[in-house]
Amino acid sequence: MSRLNGFSLLRWWNMVIKEYSQLKRDRLTFAMIVGIPIAQLFLFGYAINTDPKHMPTAIISADQSEITRTIISTLKHSEYFNIVGVLPNEKTADKALARGNVLFVINIPAGFTRQLIRGERPAILIEADATDPMATGLAIASASQLARQVSLKDLTGSLASLADAAPPFKVHVHRLYNPEGLTQYNIIPGLMGVILTMTMVLMTGLAITRERERGTMENLLAMPVKPIEVMTGKIVPYIAIGFIQITIILLAARFIFSVPFVGSLSMMYLAALLFVNANLVVGITLSSLAKSQMQAMQMSMFYFLPNLLLSGFMFPFMGMPTWAQYIGNVLPLTHFNRLIRGIILKGNTGWDLWPSIWPIILFTVVVMAVAVKFYRRTLD
Amino acid sequence: MNSGYAIDVKGLNKSFGAKHVVNDVSLQVGRGEIHGFLGPNGSGKTTTIRIMCGLLKPDSGSGTCLGYDIIRETDQIKRHIGYMTQKFSFWEDLTIRENLDFVARMYGLADRRTAVDQTLENLGLTKRSNQLAGTLSGGWKQRVALAACMLHDPQVLLLDEPTAGVDPGARRDFWEELHRLSTLGISVLVSTHYMDEVERCHKLAYIAEGKLLTRGTASEVIAAQGLQTWAVYGENLAEFSKTLQNLPGIGQTVMFGVMLHVSGKDGNMLESSLRKVIAGKPFRMEHVETGVEDVFIYMMKHDAAHSGEKR
Ligand SMILES: Nc1ncnc2c1ncn2[C@@H]1O[C@H](COP(=O)(O)OP(=O)(O)O)[C@@H](O)[C@H]1O
Ligand SMILES: [Mg+2]
């Protein structure tokens, strides 16, 4: 409690000025700020192929018959689709897709069975969230085969005559958000979070251990400055750096990779601010725990790896085993990836974003508490 | 305020792991006093000083610094003391002025600009104020560091080996500055391992292996050891001193420029041993007063021998 008492804006601002003055002379760090985003953007131009299964799927079924049930069970058997619920109408379906609750909506129109028996070849509509084409590509391909599979296996008896001819119904796939299935659309916004995680955690991680290693920490501790002032003061210049990086990535996304930007730019910067903060707090905490710059570096890497692998950046989130998804859901990068793709590609705003926002806030608060607790006020 | 002392600590103990680094240290520094703190490397000087200014918590023991409790009132202590670390601990990638500005703001100095300008002028660094602190030479670093920890007008200065690695001229200036401060009523605790600086302190404390062995004025310290000392003059004294080792009554030999100091606890035995060796050789010997340097060197050797036995 006493740690928050008597917070001095003056001393805090003094820390900010000091960090800034040091940063502006640190050419290597500056090279990192600009170099890392650019290098990564080009490195990750290539895709990593995967084949995720059991992706959450909702059904809108205006027609229920033995035939539609057969179709749905065939879908389940393909293992790509995990039917998580039945939705009443298109509006709720759109919302579920926008929020990322489901990746597919299978829409069986009214009168489907009747039209099928009459041989009118009705269509099933499959709406797919194609933000991440790697995640959904194979599932879409398999769904397209659906009509043929169903007709071969199950249409017997009085309907057998239909099986010989062309498939009795059609499957229309509607790729939402990324109609052409370009992987850059998914990778480039995803990179933003990865780059921010890497540089923010590393740079703040080094910021405090550097003081300790150079012996200047002793001087700082001998002055009447509070831990909270030191920590937050150190963070501020890095927030600015984070914003420079975001801008570089956005410009590259727009002008080099031609990624469309559907959503609100200010919303995007707000989301980024939230995320940058979460990472800085992690960096500060690691540096309170690390004894040397080397250790801080190792710890940052240790933190970075699961972020890279389990956040849905490298591998589609829905394709990961459940335990990995649990870990992934703790990481702010997972939520930021959803947030940023939602804003840039889907144009999400307001409450649609909330499910991805609160986990980042919660994460930040918890880690900050740990940081303040572990900041060493003495040299012990 | 319970005591008139600027620093008053009792029974301080501190261990790092199994290593007992500060062992039951009690120390008082009067107001306006320059108190020397001596001891070989690794004897616990830095650790003791850190405890006094609230940077380390002692395992046990208590004390006050300027009347503030060294365990509970560290914030107050930090505001009123100046601590100069053993290693230069200002920011080498900030300019001299930026460093001073930073310190001045931390202490909330009302007229920061004037204070910093004045300090730069006193240092004679006004023209170089935009130079990075890391590019300064050792002596200049010490001077800047001292000036920086004086910015907020502290009443107590804790200086940890401030003159280590500084050339003799700069050291002399440094000590003159300390004496000027002391006349202003500022109390100084200064650790050093330069024996010639011992004479410049009002009071002395000697620590070895975490234990405070001697305290007092120079003459008290000398008297407490009860050493007799003879000075020997002649050629090739270094060679000669080797022949003196292990003779009865000879505790130590120390070269002082053109003379050799030979000391021991038993004055009679020392004298007769010396006379026997010198007889017929081109050396001259005379009885001199034991200096504080002889005493400290004697104590250091004595302790080294002790710790050798233990291991
Ligand atoms: N933070 C620390 N952790 C472990 N050992 C330490 C620490 N600080 C000092 N020591 C050890 O304590 C002993 C005394 O150190 P120090 O107080 O620096 O002595 P001095 O200043 O007299 O040279 C040394 O052996 C040193 O290695
Ligand atoms: Mg020391």
How would you describe this structure to a colleague?
The complex is a heterodimer of chains A (380) and B (311). Chain A has 380 residues and is α/β, with parallel strands linked by helices. Chain A contains 16 helices and 5 strands. Chain A has a 5-stranded mixed sheet with strand order 2-1-3-4-5, sandwiched between helices. Chain A is elongated and about 85 Å long. The two termini of chain A are 21 Å apart. Chain B folds into 2 domains: 7-216, 3-Layer(aba) Sandwich (Rossmann fold); 227-310, Alpha-Beta Plaits (2-Layer Sandwich). Chain B has 10 helices and 14 strands. In chain B, α3 packs across α4. The model of chain B is unreliable at 307-311 (pLDDT under 50). The chains are: A alpha/beta (380), B alpha/beta (311). The interface between A and B is medium-sized, with 23 and 27 residues. The site of adenosine-5'-diphosphate has 10 residues of chain B, from α1.
* Average pLDDT of chain A: 81
Helix content of chain B: 25-40%
Low-confidence stretches of chain B: 307-311
Strand content of chain B: 25-35%
- Identify the CATH homologous superfamily of the largest domain in chain B: P-loop containing nucleotide triphosphate hydrolases
Overall number of domains of chain B: 2
Which structural class matches the secondary elements of chain A? Answer: alpha/beta
CATH class of the largest domain in chain B: Alpha Beta
Q: What ions, cofactors and ligands are bound?
A: adenosine-5'-diphosphate, magnesium ion
Percent strand of chain A equals 5-15%
Q: How would you describe the oligomerization state of the chains in this entry?
A: heterodimer
